[in-house]
Amino acid sequence: MLDFKHVKKSFKNVPVLNDFNLHINKGELFVLVGPSGSGKTTTLKMINRLIDPMSGTIEFEGQNINKIPLHDLRSQIGYVLQQIALFPNMTVAENISLLPDLQKWPKDKQRKRVDDLLLGVGLPPEDYRKRMPSDLSGGEQQRIGILRAIATEPKLILMDEPFSALDPISKKTLQDVVINLHEELHNTIVFITHDMSEALRLGTRIGIMHDGNLIQVGTPDEIRRAPKNSFVSEFFGLDQPNMHFDLTEMIQNSFGIPFDETADYPIISAKTTFKELIPILAEHAVVNVQDDNHHILGTINAQSLVRYDASMANSEVTH
Ligand SMILES: Nc1ncnc2c1ncn2[C@@H]1O[C@H](COP(=O)(O)OP(=O)(O)OP(=O)(O)O)[C@@H](O)[C@H]1O
């Protein structure tokens, strides 16, 4: 779907992207994560040609984006920004149907689309359709921002830190909205964040950026199991000595997988530490966990660990 090939960019002779290469598959929810100034927004803006690379090429569905008429390119791409950018003088329905209207959809089709989209994110259309943006909470406004970006079902959606200004609870709700929309529509999403727990929660794959370089690309599982260097482990908190981690709690909170008494999985102690567990799960895909009395408490895999850790990170933010 998207290919960055040897892309370089500098601003005033300061390199921002160094020989950037990345392939994003159709249908992925790809998260670009990295600290402030690592080059994430610059990368995203190059996709819809808000910024031009100095060298290298970007391909959209196999075609160099410079060869695609700008209007055609942008009409296939939805864009959700950190700053909520609804038109204040337009109702919710008018904001959402902005692009369908420009594309001259019949009015009844526009109305149906608006209602379906509002229902899909839990906002009753009869209540919300005619509201003005000023009559919505920040989280609701950002939900409308997302609906506006997906109203015409673009092939690609770019999201630049869309939830960073929201409180943790709204943030989690909106993350669920994105996960559900992606599961339903299977569109390709490139999502930027500097929040590692958001990256782990959302990404089907994650690209980690640092100082204009793509340090590692992988699934949340792969990154957890094998962080490429100390920057990645520090960024994802894999080296935190006092990180709260409790295998019994993980199983009690249903992060495990169903116990299979016919399977002969290795058995580990419930007291196994996070650091000890990573190499074990890298070697054995699934393990059983037992308490001091040799009672099996449950079964876990790497996915359990990722989900548990993301939930811990979220609850740390929440409380
Ligand atoms: N138009 C510009 N002119 C000069 N420097 C720029 C310009 N745009 C970005 N930069 C610089 O390029 C670097 C990368 O910026 P970019 O916005 O891509 O980073 P980011 O990873 O998205 O950061 P953040 O998470 O803070 O948004 C930064 O050092 C920034 O100051």
TrEMBL record:
InterPro entries found in the cross-reference section: AAA+_ATPase, ABC_transporter-like_ATP-bd, ABC_transporter-like_CS, P-loop_NTPase
Enzyme Commission number: 7.6.2.9
Pfam families on file: ABC_tran (PF00005)
Any GO molecular function: ATP binding
Enzyme class, broadest EC rank: translocase
Transmembrane segments: none
Cited SUPFAM superfamilies: P-loop containing nucleoside triphosphate hydrolases
Statement: the UniProt record of this protein carries the keyword Transcription regulation: no
Top-rank taxon, per record: Bacteria
Keywords: ATP-binding, Nucleotide-binding, Transport
Start and end residues of each ABC transporter domain: 2-236
Family per similarity comment: Belongs to the ABC transporter superfamily.
Entry protein name: ABC-type quaternary amine transporter
The species this protein was found in: Dellaglioa algida DSM 15638
